[in-house]
Write a structure and sequence with these properties.
Its cofactor is pyridoxal 5'-phosphate. This protein has about 450 residues and is an alpha/beta fold. It contains 15 helices and twelve strands. Helix 4 runs antiparallel to helix 12, helix 6 crosses helix 11 and helix 13 runs parallel beside helix 15.
C-alpha cells in the first residue's frame, strides 16, 4: 500500500491540490488523484533498487520524508498561490499581505534601533519596552490591566504564538474545538501537539455560530476552544452573544479559550470584543495578536500572547525552544508603533473601507455572489455562477485565463466539500491594483 510519507507528486501537478493528504483530496478530484497516485506508485516500483540506472536516466531521488503527524500537510496554499501569481503574471488577491509599505515613523524607529546597536539576542519573552507597549494597548482596547513582565510573551509573528500556545498547553489526546473555515496553521500545530480536532462549521451567508452544535461538541475531554475574530477567511465578527455563549461553555466545563485577534483593528461595522474581557474569562484565555496586519509590516514577524501567569508559563516553555527570542530592532520599532495615536487606527479603517468597496462592488459586477464581511481584509464569494465544479478548478482558471489570484478555501475545512463553492479574495492592495483586478474579472468572466 502506498504510504503518504513517501508519496511524490509528478512535476507540475502539486500546485492545485490541497496541501493535505491524498485521501482528503480525493473527494474533490477522485479520478485525477487516483491516476496520479497510480502513476507515481508504478514509476517507483517498476525497477528494482539494485538494478543499474538506465542510460541518460538518473536514479530517482529518495522519497520525501516527514513525521507521521505532519504527513497529511504539503506546501501551504498561500505559498502555492503566490508562486503561481508570479509564474502567470496574475494580480495577487490571494495571500493576505499588503503590496504597500508600513508607516514611515515605524520604519524609522527600526533603522534607529539598528544604528544604536540593538542587534543582539533580545530577552526571551520580549524587550521591556515592547512588553509594556503591548500591555498598554491591551488596556486601552479591553480595560484589562496585565503585567508586561509576567503575562505578555513576544513571539516571531502570531503564527509562532499559535504554535507556542498549542505545544505549550495542549497534551496528546486533548480535544480542541475550532471553527471552520480556519487559518491553516491551526490544524498543523494542533496535529504537532497530538490533539483531537473538532470543527464547527460556519456557513454562509452570515457564517453565524451554530450554538447548539457547539454546545454538543464540548465533552469531558475538551481542553480548549480556539476562535479567530475578526475571522479569516470569512470576514465574520463574532457577536457579543456568540462570545458570551462560548464564555459560558468554557466556564461551565473548565475549558480554555485561545483567541486569535490579529485583525482586531480592521473591524468595520461593529466594535471588536476580546473574549478575555468578558467576566471570568481572562483567567482561562490566551489572547494572540501581532503587528503585521495593523501596520502593513507582515515581514517583520512580531507577534505576542497575553495570558495569566499560570497559562503564560506553558506558552513560554514552548516559545523558548521554538525561537527563543524575536528580532531585537524590530521589537524596539514595534513598541513605537503600538504607541501610535488613535488617529492612526481611524485612518487605517477609512483607507480599508475604500479598498473594500472597490473590491466588493467589482466582484458583484463581475457576477459573484458576495457574502458580508464585517472585519479583516478578506471577502468570501460564491463562484458557482461561473459553472466550475469546485473552488480549486475555479482558482486555476482564474489565474491562467483571467490573470487574478484568489484562495480556494476548501483547504480551510476538515471536510473540503464544505468549502468547494467558495473563494476568498483580499483587498489589502493599493486601489490601482484592486481596480485592475476587478476590470480583468468583469471583462473575462462569464456566467453559465
Amino acid at each position: 500500500m502506498l504510504q503518504q510519507s513517501t508519496f511524490r507528486f509528478p512535476a507540475g501537478h502539486e500546485m492545485f491540490l490541497r496541501p493535505f493528504s491524498i485521501s482528503r483530496c480525493s473527494s474533490l478530484y477522485p479520478s485525477r488523484t487516483l491516476a496520479m497516485a497510480t502513476s507515481t506508485f508504478s514509476s517507483e516500483t517498476t525497477s528494482s533498487p539494485s538494478s543499474d540506472p538506465q542510460p541518460n536516466h538518473p536514479p530517482a531521488p529518495p522519497p520525501l520524508q516527514v513525521a507521521k503527524r505532519l504527513e497529511k500537510f504539503k506546501t501551504t496554499i498561500f505559498t502555492q498561490m503566490s508562486s503561481l501569481a508570479i509564474k502567470h503574471g496574475a494580480i495577487n488577491l490571494g495571500q493576505g499581505f499588503p503590496n504597500f509599505d508600513g508607516p514611515e515613523f515605524v520604519k524609522e524607529a527600526a533603522i534607529k534601533a539598528i544604528k544604536e546597536g540593538k542587534n543582539q539576542y533580545a530577552r526571551g519573552f520580549g524587550v521591556p519596552d515592547l512588553n509594556s507597549s503591548i500591555a498598554s494597548r491591551f488596556k486601552k482596547d479591553t480595560g484589562l490591566d496585565v503585567d508586561p513582565e509576567k503575562e505578555v510573551t513576544v513571539t516571531s509573528g502570531c503564527t509562532e504564538a499559535i504554535a507556542a500556545t498549542m505545544l505549550g498547553l495542549i497534551n496528546p489526546g486533548d480535544e480542541v474545538i475550532l471553527f471552520a473555515p480556519f487559518y491553516d496553521s491551526y490544524e498543523a500545530t494542533l496535529s504537532m501537539a497530538g490533539a483531537k480536532i473538532k470543527a464547527i462549521t460556519l456557513r454562509p451567508p452570515d457564517f453565524s455560530v451554530p450554538l447548539n452544535e457547539l454546545k454538543s461538541a464540548v465533552t469531558k475531554d475538551t481542553r480548549a476552544i480556539l476562535i479567530n475574530t475578526p475571522h479569516n477567511p470569512t470576514g465574520k465578527m463574532f457577536s457579543r452573544e456568540e462570545l458570551g455563549f462560548i464564555a459560558t461553555l468554557c466556564k461551565e466545563n473548565d475549558v480554555l479559550a485561545f483567541t486569535d485577534e490579529v485583525y482586531d483593528k480592521l473591524a468595520f461595522e461593529e466594535d471588536h470584543i476580546s473574549l478575555a474581557s468578558l467576566p471570568g474569562m481572562y483567567e482561562r484565555t490566551v489572547t494572540l495578536n501581532s503587528l503585521g496586519k495593523t501596520f502593513s509590516l507582515t515581514g517583520w514577524k512580531i507577534g505576542w500572547a497575553i495570558a495569566p501567569p499560570h497559562l503564560t508559563w506553558g506558552v513560554r516553555q514552548a516559545h523558548a525552544f521554538l525561537t527563543f527570542a524575536t528580532s531585537t530592532p524590530m521589537q524596539s520599532a514595534a513598541s513605537v508603533a503600538l504607541r501610535a495615536p488613535e488617529s492612526y487606527y481611524e485612518e487605517l479603517k477609512r483607507d480599508y473601507k475604500v479598498k473594500k468597496a472597490i473590491l466588493v462592488d467589482g466582484l458583484k459586477a463581475a457576477g459573484f455572489i458576495v457574502y458580508p464581511s464585517s472585519g479583516t481584509y478578506f471577502v468570501m464569494v460564491d463562484h458557482t455562477p461561473f459553472g466550475f465544479e469546485n473552488d480549486i478548478a475555479f482558482c486555476e482558471y482564474l489565474i491562467k485565463e483571467v490573470g487574478v489570484v484568489a484562495i480556494p478555501p476548501s483547504v480551510f475545512y476538515l471536510n473540503p466539500e464544505e468549502g468547494k463553492n467558495l473563494v476568498r479574495f483580499t483587498f489589502c492592495k493599493d486601489e490601482g491594483t484592486l481596480r485592475a483586478a476587478v476590470d480583468r474579472m468583469k471583462e473575462k468572466l462569464r456566467k453559465i
